[in-house]
Design a protein that fits this description.
- The structure is a homodimer.
- The first copy, chain A, is α+β, with helices and mostly antiparallel strands.
- Chain A has one domain: Phosphoribosylformylglycinamidine synthase subunit PurS (Mth169, Chain: A), CATH 3.30.1280.
- Helix content of chain A is about 30%, strand content about 40%.
- Chain A has a 3-stranded antiparallel beta sheet with strand order 2-1-3.
- The longest helix of chain A is centred in the C-terminal third of the chain and has 13 residues.
- The first copy, chain A, is elongated, with a radius of gyration of 17 Å.
- At the A-B interface, β1, α1, β2 and α2 of A face β1, α1, β2 and α2 of B.
- β2 of chain A pairs antiparallel with β2 of chain B, so a sheet runs across the interface.
């Protein structure tokens, strides 16, 4: 089994109203040292070992379903040998 | 400046209906090797250097605002020296 951790973030050029709202809340709570907040998604996929190329399959899943590549970027990390 | 990356995940014991829906979609798209999907949040905070203890401040922000510790776990990583 593999554990694949996918990080999805809004592209730099895309406004993040949710992040802006969180930043304002933090400032109201006196965390004035916070300069910027960006909010994204974090997905953990548990994937069985198969004959197929894991990287190619994960990229396909991301680009077809998990990530909106028009406004989002993604990266992922693979951990091997997660016990079943 | 510091860049703090916060990963928020649902606790193991908490059902993740969004993850279950994504898993079903992946299966319908023939990605049958996907055994489990868990969905969480990923936050990037840009924080100015201050006299205060960064770790203590980040933990406070997480526990007071960013994370619902009843149903969620979190961990974070600090990257130093992000250019202003």
């Amino acid at each position: 089994m593999y554990k694949v951790k996918v990080f999805v973030t809004l592209r730099e050029s895309v406004l993040d109203p949710q992040g802006t709202a969180v930043k304002s809340s933090l400032h109201r709570m006196s965390y004035n040292e916070v300069d910027d907040v960006r909010i994204g998604k974090y997905l953990e996929l548990t994937i069985e070992k198969t004959e197929q190329d894991l990287d190619a399959r994960v990229r396909e899943m991301c680009e077809k379903l998990l990530v909106n590549t028009v406004i989002e970027d993604y990266r992922y990390e693979v951990e091997e040998g997660v016990p079943q």
